[in-house]
Write a structure and sequence with these properties.
By secondary structure, the chain is an alpha+beta fold. The chain is about 35% helix and about 20% strand.
Length: about 80
């Protein structure tokens, strides 16, 4: 599994960033994407977790852990 980091653009525009990822998947820039996990925080501080594709709960949990380690600077 390879972790792909966000391109360096304005991360404050959440809808535009989500559209950019969808466009990259559809145009083939990001290939073989079979699972996605989206974490959202609402205005009350509640975290919403959404899994897409093959992201069942156990895979979503594993993917989030890999992402946290990547953010902490650990190797893949």
């Amino acid at each position: 599994m390879k972790l792909v980091e966000f391109p360096l653009t304005n991360l404050q525009d959440i809808p535009a960033k989500l559209r950019q990822f969808a466009d990259r998947i559809e145009d083939g820039t990001l290939v073989d994407i079979d699972a996605a996990v989206l974490l959202l925080r609402d205005e009350h501080g509640d975290v919403l977790v959404h899994g897409f594709g093959n992201a069942d709960p156990s895979l979503a949990y594993w993917m989030m852990g890999r992402g946290m380690r990547k953010l902490d600077g650990e190797s893949q």
